[in-house]
Design goal:
Pathway: Ketone degradation; acetoin degradation. By secondary structure, the protein is α/β, with parallel strands linked by helices. The protein is built from eleven helices and eight strands. Helix 1 (27-38) links the parallel strand 1 and strand 2.
């Protein structure tokens, strides 16, 4: 990699906290930063604190009514507001909800700004990736949709084509909804099938609004899909559609809840498959956008064994100094996990799996749900982007 890389982070971002027992614990972000620090990754990144997105910036995506509702919820966390998705069974209200959510949004915008204005080549916000939030409603643990706000900032500051690739196990429905009829934004999401997992959207037939046909690409994967199948689907779809779109910037969401140990979903990827996806997206940015890459976090609820290792790999790739999967997890980090949580932490930065896959060009197997899903996406989306869906 050439050019400095950036991490937008400070400890205040871990105040995004729905409380004890909620699956989206800020511990996952805290442990990620500590593990990355132990590996020396933070020494290879320019680290800056998160600015706060003001109301005008939030309202480039969200309604003023919704921003006011979030402020009220943070000041009165006992007041549920189901009309705005606040105080629901998944997105609890908590003190200062607006303030910390606005800082997460500000962090992703700062990452986008730094990349777009040429301060750095790559930038990351691992506390971000809150891709389910809608313009007027919270959803799926997400209050403000920081990837959408960052993309809108890019558009408002001169970007003509932005590609967004979402590898979270859940469909990136909020980002897709915001830009569904905007031909300047390509949204690509690989996720577990909507027939088996929240939010129940993201079928291959969701291809964009009337003014933007072909700019939403969805790859719904069967439950049980592991590294080889996931990577087969990724490489059968993502590089071709992103190349056809010719983006100036690549924005990516890296939810690691596709892991086999994640408690909220049903895919069976490993750290090794996730790392392979991060490398592929990094390389795609260098091939297509002169390296301009904005990476965010996302879901991930195996908060000790999975998230810190996955996102430390991501930050190391952003920094241009990837960590060897066989590397030992530093003793100091493992000891802290043992003392704080009474858990035996992973020993290595790998799950010991081979992240190889059979390329789509080797043939289509109609007897498998996976290949039928890939074919459905290629058949619906490729012609809209001027691509040949044949295999």
């Amino acid at each position: 990699m050439s050019g400095e890389a950036l991490l937008v982070f400070d400890d205040g971002l871990t105040a995004y906290d729905f409380g004890r027992g909620h699956p989206m614990s800020p511990i996952r972000v805290e442990l990620t930063i500590k593990l990355a620090r132990e590996f020396g990754v933070l020494d290879q990144l320019k680290v800056v604190p998160a600015p706060t997105a003001d109301d005008a910036l939030l309202e480039t995506v969200h309604t003023a009514e919704y921003v006011a509702a979030v402020k009220h919820a943070g000041e009165n966390p006992d007041d549920a507001d189901p009309a705005h998705g606040l105080g629901t069974s998944d997105t609890y209200c908590f003190p200062n909800m607006h303030e910390v959510s606005a800082r997460i949004a500000g962090a992703s915008v700062e990452a986008a700004r730094a990349v777009w204005e040429g301060d750095v080549l790559h930038a990351a916000n691992v506390a971000g990736g809150l891709h389910h939030a809608m313009p007027n409603q919270a959803s799926g643990f997400c209050v403000y949709n920081d990837p959408a706000i960052a993309i809108q900032w890019l558009l408002d500051h001169g970007a003509e084509r932005v590609a967004y690739v979402d590898v979270d196990v859940h469909h990136g429905d909020g980002v897709q909804a915001v830009f569904y009829n905007d031909p300047r934004v390509l949204t690509v999401s690989l996720h577990e099938s909507p027939t088996t997992l929240f939010p129940g959207t993201g079928s291959a037939g969701e291809t964009g609004g009337p003014d933007a046909e072909g700019t939403s690409v969805n790859v719904p994967l069967p439950p049980g899909t592991g590294d080889a199948g996931w990577l087969r689907a990724f490489h059968a779809v993502v590089p071709d559609v992103v190349k056809a779109f010719r983006p100036q910037v690549l924005v990516t969401q890296h939810g690691c809840d596709s892991h086999v140990e994640d408690p909220l979903a049903h895919l069976t990827k490993t750290i090794d498959g996730q790392r392979a996806a991060y490398v592929a997206l990094h390389d795609l940015a260098h091939e297509l956008t002169d390296g301009r890459w904005v990476a965010t976090g996302g879901g991930g609820y195996a908060i000790i064994d999975v998230v810190p290792r996955a996102w430390t790999h991501l930050l190391a790739i952003v920094a241009g100094h990837p960590i060897d999967p066989s590397a030992l997890v530093p003793d100091a980090w493992r000891e802290e996990v043992q003392l704080r949580f009474g858990r035996v932490a992973p020993v290595r930065m790998t799950d010991g799996r081979d992240a190889s896959y059979v390329d789509w060009s080797n043939g289509y197997n109609p007897d498998t749900w996976l290949d039928r899903a890939i074919k459905a996406t290629r058949d619906t989306s490729f012609p809209l982007l001027g691509l040949d869906p044949s295999y």
